[in-house]
Sequence to fold (203 residues):
Amino acid sequence: MTKLIIVRHGETEWNRVERFRGRYDIPLNQTGLSQAEKSARFIATHWKPIAVYSSPLNRAMETATAIARANQLTVQPHPQLIDIDYGDWQGLTPEEVRMRWTKQARNWYEHPDQAQVPNGETLIQVQKRAMQAVYEICALHPNEDVVLVSHTVVNRLLLLAMVGAGVERFWHIRQEPCAINLVEADGQDFTIISMNDICHLRS
Fold:
């Protein structure tokens, strides 16, 4: 079976102050760069990845590059692992969104399965494209270890799909910066071994 090491990118300034990031191409801050290096060392010590795939956005690519370098690999950008398109919300704070789109914001936080971001993607759309990427990657790498670097929204949706939970449970999964999730994939059947692991960042 394929072993998937699913990683969230490191911290950015917009994670720290909380803005809707989406497709804005924000780099890692100094904390994020340090987190990426710690993640790279941890992964190189515990697994033998044969490939590193990443969202094409800079914050994910910087994280993935550190991981790839530690394993003598080259990052392969994958467009379907890109963050959600937040449409009109990108760059805004949650407070700004609540003021301008009261109903839509309430759905986002209380009924995520019904949320419709103005001029953006739904969570179901994101989940569908991201899972398609996972199926493709697993088919390319049977019985191998593979790293996927993406975003909190994408990773949560992947994990929900893998355990057969609905998108309404979106807020019941956490993904901290540079969290590592370990998943075993057998065809289109998945077993989650660990989730949102950040023990490697505490050392």
About this structure: The chain has a mean pLDDT of 96. The first strand starts at residue 2 and ends at 8. The chain has one domain: 2-87+122-201.
